[in-house]
Amino acid sequence: MRKILLLAVLLLSASSIYAGGYRVATQGQRALAMGHAGVALVNSAETAFFNPSGIVMLEDRLNVSVGVSAVMSNVKWQNETTGEYSETDSPAGTPFYAYITYKINEWLSAGLSVYTPYGSEVKWEKDWSGSHLVNNIDLAAIYIQPLLSIRLSEHVSIGGGPIYATGNVEFNRNINQTITDINGNRSNVNIEDSGVTNWGWSASMTVAPTDNFRIAMNYRSEIILEAENGEATFSNIPNSGLVPAENGVKNFNASLPMPAELSIGAAWQATEKWLFALDYNRTYWEAYDNLDIDFVDPSVADSKNPRNYKNSSSYRFGMEYKASSAIDLRAGYYYDQTPVREGYFAPETPRNDSQGFTAGLSYKINENLAIDASFLYVRFKEVNASYDHYMVDGKEVPFKGTYKSNAFIPGIGVSYKL
Amino acid sequence: MKNYLKYIGISACAMFLSCEPEFDNQVQENDIYVSGDADFTNFVSVGNSLTAGYADNALYVQGQESSFPNIMATKFELVGGGEFKQPMMADNLGGLLLGGQQISENRLVLSVTSGSPAPAILAGTPQTEITNKLSGSFNNMGVPGAKSFHLAAPGYGNPAGITSGQANPYFARFASSESATVIEDAASQNPTFFSLWIGNNDILSFATSGGIGVDQAGNLDPSTYGSNDITDPNVFASVYNDLLNALNANASGGVVFNIPDVTNIPFFTTVPNNALALDAAQAQGLTGFFQAFAGIATQTLIQQGVPAAQAQALAAQYAITFNEGPNRFLISVEPSQQNPFGFRQMTDEELLLLTIDRGALQNSGYGSVALTPEVMQVLGILQQGGTPTPQQAMLVLDAVNPIEDEDALDDDEIMMVQTAKESFNATIEGLAQANGLAFVDVDELMKEVSTTGIVYESGVMTSAFVTGGAFSLDGVHLTPRGYAFIASEAIQSINETYGSTVPTVNIGNFGTVTFSDDVQ
């Protein structure tokens, strides 16, 4: 199993958006097809992510779910006053998950989860109008979490476990709005660090008053990924004693929070064929106050970038219809609030409020194995926004424009039970 | 796996919805802006170095990319404008080669190799060979160095005429034939829209030479003009009218620019005329020197047969008083009956050129007196009531070291420049109105740059040398930001004149002076 996980980590570079900020809500094809409303669903090893306390309520002794999504996002920016425009050409992000649960006895289950809840991959045209803020960013975090779930009574269970998080970040931008080398190439800095690790935890509880109705909550702690001695590569810096930088590598320290998340949900098996799920989700984005890049060398000016995010909510709804003994059809919708405040709309995470439309199905190949597919379309409203906190000579210089984004996220996975 | 998923996704979105997010009104798809009565399909720009994108004393690739018509053309693209071709230089060094010999310097960069930030010539061997003829026609017909009448002069692009000064090396690179004129090559492109900014050099080359040329007002034959002369206003008016008619023949419209006041540009405003800083003892010493000078001058004039009273009165003008603090320099003038020794103190309005030897001003008494020990000795004799020998007296007279004519623009010269500018600008504005063209009052705009400055999102652009942001390191030509400002103002004027809604320019996205320590 460990080898498989390792392989998965190596093969797939996790990433991309969805759910405000850099949260990527694609942690299970079955739940994703239902609007990513999965806290109170207990139907596969996906439960290990959405609600660890639920795994003890799974019927089978062994459950495995693995899957991957392809995030294809597009963002366009334009400024009607100046006629400037640009669009992203972001590579497809591939968030993945792998869960395994094992029922030790009727009141105790154990599990292991590997998933990629946070990430972002945005690539603007190089030297575009906002290149002093970002040319491209690639951020990925992988969470690995052992779990225990204990049934306290017929109706109540609890669960949770420690989380080991490991992250990579690459961030590229131009030094400022104008400076170039002698041939007109924009001066640039690329910061990169990988294998940044830290610990966190999650805890959850399920209450199932009847066989057909379940409510559950899950809390996942904040994990701050602190890059130490990462590599910042300066390029196209003019050869001049007047520029306080030079071509080459400098070390930097920076930290990026993976915010805490609280989910509360209910699931109702209305009839033999119909299942409904509802989640409320709160992400504690206030942890993301600043993106500060502190260069170890005191002669290189630190980069201070206020973000000032606010806590945000998502509202998720999904349903499942048993079309036949082999096929389950699913559909869902969610509304996702942006954590970005007015005046802090930075183009490295150009996320305003969004709506997600989801659909999917499971096909049972046999009693033990099913294929799960999902499709998510994320729609962002056209928005006039600005980032007002870029400093030039002690003066805030806004970067304004109109943004329009969308994303298509197909996903596929398998569920196995024994 | 990654690709496989991507294809599933693409086919899925192709089935359901458009994959690309779309704005309600797309800038890129010409949904927003209108061209009004103007047709920007084929935009041709005619002019001099300011149209070419010349900066830092050279024409180089980066400057050309930031030429004001090129910046305008990127905005015109949003309202049907076509490709804007420029006769690109071979490199970012900017020097010119003629038959392998370098005939013009590389560009200036701001360097700290001398210890403090100062313009210096960028090192490197330039690759732009004038005899490598560029093929095709060019939308940017800006020819650095061109005066108004040059644009209509046959042979101005003939490589054979470059060394004799009959032809222009920049035009020689892309003239359609040896006998072609700039205006013919521009008009033959059938511009649907044009810009014309010409006349600057008709005045400027006089001014930047320190006024060593001649004001040719009254001389209607430009073929007799020297390179540093001021063009006769009637010649200018007649040529300008012809140029406009040629460009406007089939065009939907155009934009014209007037001539800014040269006395606002850093080339003339950077070195103050009162930079002679003296402490009390120095001021007293200099004042004493000129009292002595006046005495010797009186004697000299009397010896030359000037009646004593008259000699005394004439010599009194040389008893110049100096004070502690800044004092104005001395300037050389043509010796005359009124000013037999040929110098005086500068007036408040007179200007020094950026190219003046500032080291000499500070250290060798240029603009005041070279007080050698021998001179001091003579002064000592005078102080003790002695009589110096004629040779000693000569030492005192020769010690005066006034600023030469080519390093300064005096009141008369400034007057000539202003008169010509007023006359040219009246012609330009009048013809713009008569032809219904958009007009940019660069004279007024540059006044604003040099007084209040131009406020934009990330700062204020002024005409201060090096730091102001508007002017490049040659003190005459603009920076990319300065050119972007001109482009933005031109677009606003075009929009007002033709009812178009071409978007304007964010000048903060354009750079100013370039830093480099790779200098000669």
UniProtKB/TrEMBL annotation, chain A:
Keyword Membrane belongs to the record: yes
Subcellular location: Cell outer membrane
A matching Pfam family: Toluene_X
Keyword match Transmembrane: yes
Keywords: Cell outer membrane, Membrane, Signal, Transmembrane, Transmembrane beta strand
Family that this chain belongs to: Belongs to the OmpP1/FadL family.
Protein name listed in UniProt: Long-chain fatty acid transport protein
Organism of derivation: Psychroflexus halocasei
Taxonomic lineage: Bacteria, Pseudomonadati, Bacteroidota, Flavobacteriia, Flavobacteriales
UniProtKB/TrEMBL annotation, chain B:
GO MF entry, a single one: hydrolase activity, acting on ester bonds
SUPFAM superfamilies given in the database record: SGNH hydrolase
Protein name listed in UniProt: GDSL-like Lipase/Acylhydrolase
Organism annotation: Psychroflexus halocasei
Taxonomic lineage: Bacteria, Pseudomonadati, Bacteroidota, Flavobacteriia, Flavobacteriales
